[in-house]
Amino acid sequence: MPSRPDTARSWPRALVGRTTIVPVNEPVLLVIVVATALAFDFTNGFHDTGNAMATSIATRALKPKQAVLLSASLNMVGAFLSLTVAATIATGIVDSGVVTLEVVLAGLAGGIVWNLLTWLLGIPSSSSHALVGGVVGAALAAAGSAGVLWDGLISKVLLPALIAPIVAILVASVGTALVTRLTKDVPQESNDKMFRWGQIGSASLVSLAHGTNDAQKSMGIILLALIAAGAVPSDSSVPFWVIVSCALAMALGTYTGGWRVIRTLGKGLVELESRQGMAAETSSAAVILLSSHFGYSLSTTHVATGSILGSGVGMRGAKVRWGVAGRMFSAWLITVPAAGAVGALFYGIDTFVGGDVGSYVVFGLLLISAAVFYVLSRREPVGHHNVNHEWEPGEQADEIVAEAVEAHDVELIAEGTGAGAGGKRDQA
Amino acid sequence: MSEYIEWSALGQVVLFGLIVGAGLPALFAVGVRALAGTGARDEDGHVRGSRAAVAIACFAVIIAAIVGAIVYIAAGGH
């Protein structure tokens, strides 16, 4: 395991100066790729805050601002804990021979656009799948179907997207059922007080694991770009400035808080109380860490969402809005093709315009689309002030209301759209 | 399908996921119940010694698991 900070040396100057010290073949392109990778890292933190913190915010274990600050700090710490970073992108999914800087740039751009679109719609969607999708699309545009390892795509990306929520629903529902049975004669007040601590602890672990896993991906991409451009030798470990900037970008994104996604996860799926939140976050932490340990990586987003659903399934009398969940599942199924289409488009534009100018154009288009998404989001802003407001009937695909599997309330099902009625206990 | 899904890895994730991901919350619940459930306090309002011991044991296992998880993350085992 190579230690990293020793090799930090002075690459920043080489990059910032972009001239002498190290011969960089495509300096402008390299700078653009690094900037885009950091932007992706930002959207990653931004988009995935909810995975760790949505339940703590919804149950009021933490104030919204406190929660994102805690999550951002832990993301940052987690990023510095990354000891092994490999200079890879979509290994085993695209043919590494076709991965040029242009492909990486288009892939990142595709991932960012998909992240922003799903954020605008308030849908938690996997940032790593968005990135893989973008790169797959760009690789397809660059080298045709031979550029993509389809078996790898199916077994490492598409099927796990279906499996992850199932596993998480199972674990979290068993956990929630056990917890609620064991504590049913404990006064609600004591439950809330103590489980809030458990909830904060388990959510913190999810944040830490996320910081380590996901910041590492961006570091890997930047390292790959640096090696490809000849700015560092091919056996170089991650320069220190890369670690710092990736950690900062992700923490900043996390702190900005993807409130729209947090709202959907915390309020849209299940009306949560602390016991459920604690069971859900522990399930998330356990499944995420175990899945990477056993070499069967599952997406943090898919696991976290599944866990929250499971905490609704496992609790007697809890309501699960399967309509909202269904919307998410559909978004997950089209993440790879959709991000891929954007990635392919960007790659096409890049090569059509050609040269460094092509990459400028891609970067410019990316900035424009980000601005458009931002403007659209301001029409119905969601922020720390309203993230916990009651879920309105009709807010997103809310029409299908299902009770927990073990306690069907016929009256409520017949009522159908009476979705916003639940969770009054949460108003305080 | 079998060539696309690593069943053994998946099975281990599910098995250990249930043990850890559902077991730890259950253990936490046992601890909470010991401290705050009916009969936890004696006539003076103090938590009974036996109940406190159960709670401490539960929470100790959980804290050990959290520390273990952090060490695991830091060691790059993810």
Automatic annotation (TrEMBL), chain B:
Keyword set, alphabetical order: Membrane, Transmembrane, Transmembrane helix
UniProt-recorded name of the protein: Interferon-induced transmembrane protein
TM segment ranges: 12-32, 53-75
